[in-house]
Amino acid sequence: MRLATLALGLSALALATTAAHANSFTNGDFSTNGGAGQFNYGGSNQTTATGWYVGGSNGVGSNGYTFVTTAALAASGTPNSQYGGNISWWDKSNGGVGTITSSPTGGFFIAQDSAYESAALNQDITGLKLGKTYTVGFDWAIAQQTNFTGPTFDAWQVSLGGGAAQSTTTHNLANHDFNGWWHESFSFVANSTNETLSFLAAGGPGGLPPFAFLDGVTFTPDTVATPEPGTLALLGLGGLGLAVVARRRK
């Protein structure tokens, strides 16, 4: 009885330690937002996606040509560009080659210009465990803004905190076409308990508005639990206690 009680206590302690490190990542499907439109431009052009911002800390210091949209709105016109009117991307319905489809997640997604007013899409994440590995997964596609002509190319660069950015494969897009969706995942090690997850579209050529789409972002710790040093010490003492009890029984 004593052995079972002690073992259960140690298991509960280990689980409690793991639970205490739940991170604050949120809204990876961008479904919680202020409606379709452009980030960080103020006035009637501004939109939000809960937990996310574009540019410097909390969006201060950079507009970034980044939008919240849907597949239907992307083809027909997403409201609120800083230049007035709506912004759209080539689709068969407006004279393009490909058909813009929803991501595997569905609903809203991000569209970011890769060669104009470049500024990362960010989320500040708290509750990380120092030295622990986290996997960032996401779906992405590439498109071209309407009223522009010429082949383009695009990729996403992803980073966590001050660590080195990791990049997707750079894909080429034929004139007026749509490519996607692909799924990608990268692993990062937390160097702090609070880090900024960043997505920056990197493409070209400039002047032909290459756009990268983003949706279905996930942020999960690795599946191998790593107890705190203090917990390891307690588990060690518990194991010693179990051994002593077992020896006395003999």
Using brief descriptors, characterize the structure shown.
seven-stranded mixed sheet, alpha+beta, Jelly Rolls, 30% strand, 250 residues
Overall description:
This protein has 250 residues and is of the alpha+beta class. It has one domain: Galactose-binding domain-like (Jelly Rolls), CATH 2.60.120. Helices cover 18% and strands 30% of the residues. The chain is built from three helices and 14 strands. It has helices at 2-19, 71-76, 229-249, and strands at 37-39, 46-47, 53-54, 66-69, 109-113, 121-125, 133-144, 152-154, 156-160, 166-167, 171-173, 179-189, 195-201, 210-221. The protein has a seven-stranded mixed β-sheet. Strands 3-6-13-9-10 form a five-stranded antiparallel β-sheet, with no helix packed on it. Strands 8-11 form a two-stranded antiparallel sheet. A hairpin with a 5-residue loop joins β9 and β10 (166-167). α1 (2-19) runs antiparallel to α3 (229-249). The radius of gyration is 23 Å and the shape is globular.
Quick structural gist:
The protein is 18% helix and 30% strand. By secondary structure, the chain is an alpha+beta fold.
Topology:
Layout: H1 2-19, E1 37-39, E2 46-47, E3 53-54, E4 66-69, H2 71-76, E5 109-113, E6 121-125, E7 133-144, E8 152-154, E9 156-160, E10 166-167, E11 171-173, E12 179-189, E13 195-201, E14 210-221, H3 229-249
Parallel strand pairs: 1-2
Antiparallel strand pairs: 1-4, 3-6, 4-5, 5-14, 6-13, 7-12, 7-14, 8-11, 9-10, 9-13
Helix pairs in contact: 1-3
